[in-house]
Amino acid sequence: MRWEFESSRPIYLQIVTFLKESIASGVYPPGSRMPTVRDLALEAGVNPNTMQRAFAEMERDGLLHTERTTGRNVTEDTAVLEDLRRSLAQESVDEMLRRLGKLGMSSGEIVKMVAARAEEDAGRGEKIE
Amino acid sequence: MSILECKDLTKRYGSVTALDQMNLTLESGKIVGLLGPNGSGKTTLIKIANRLLQPTSGELLIAGSRPNEATKAIVSYLPDRSYLPEWMKVTELLEFYQDFYSDFDCAKAQELLKTLQIPDGMAMKKLSKGTKDKVQLILTMSRRAKVYLLDEPIAGVDPAARDYILRTIVSNYSEDALVLISTHLIADVESVLDEAVFLRQGKVILHKPIDTIREETGKSVDAYFREVFAC
User: Fold this and answer.
1) Which residue range(s) make up the domain with A31?
2) pLDDT for the residue A128
3) CA Rg, chain A, in Å?
4) Residues of A near B (CB-CB distance < 8 A)?
5) Do B193 and A48 touch (CB under 8 A)?
């Protein structure tokens, strides 16, 4: 299965986003070994240089590090991982606010709706943290 | 390092100019899309690189030399039509390639052919077009070449076969080689390319990395192509 890419953004940035989400959600757990550039490029259906560029970007961000003996691993630094989780969550919130803003909703209304929805889920026994 | 270079390359067929003082420098280690509408000069360029045509003026250099026996030894070429003898069996084609090319990796070709599940002893003429195309591609990609020139490798096959072909290209090219893919099916190849070259009426009108085009235009290369070449 090739990965789906939207047309308006550079492919390497879309790969970075996808891999960050995969790390934050535990598909690639802390300290685990990442697939090789070539294997992941094949899975995604992209050029290996593009995948390499995405990996380099994530190494710069401290999310991946390369060990000479064990290959490329996901960081075990909990502070870095927590930052990642928060920044991805922040992006989702920003996106939601942008869309609701377009519908003309005030921040007060939005907060109420989110709270009501969270309560509803809690009532169904779903976990709210 | 530049491995393929065109300097004021011109090709005329009678009064028709197919390549018009074209300048282009391509580097090793890249997968490059040669993109342009029909008649823009894609096949002419690839044929000159294989010495199937002679330039009218200017020159094309591969690793510093005009196309000759030495460049043919490092260039793996996939023509835009079926060229293998129809009566040959796939096993005979493997021997054929081994005789012609010292860089042909027969074991690799056999490995790749296994996935196609072609019955032993089946002649080429008995195979479907899609399977024939795959066999040709496997032979082409099983050479350890410095330059792969692929003329319309995904034209005329179904979407699943396209994915198979692109995957075979990406997983088998030598990493220090140049892969030049000519096509007008841009959406299908876009994600496997490093760079795009747009050809119009025998001239290069754009040569940039794929992600740079996306960054600068906010569009996919496919969408940008449609805009540039709108009729």
Assistant:
1) 11-76
2) 53
3) 18
4) 2, 5, 7-13, 38, 41-42, 44-50, 53
5) no
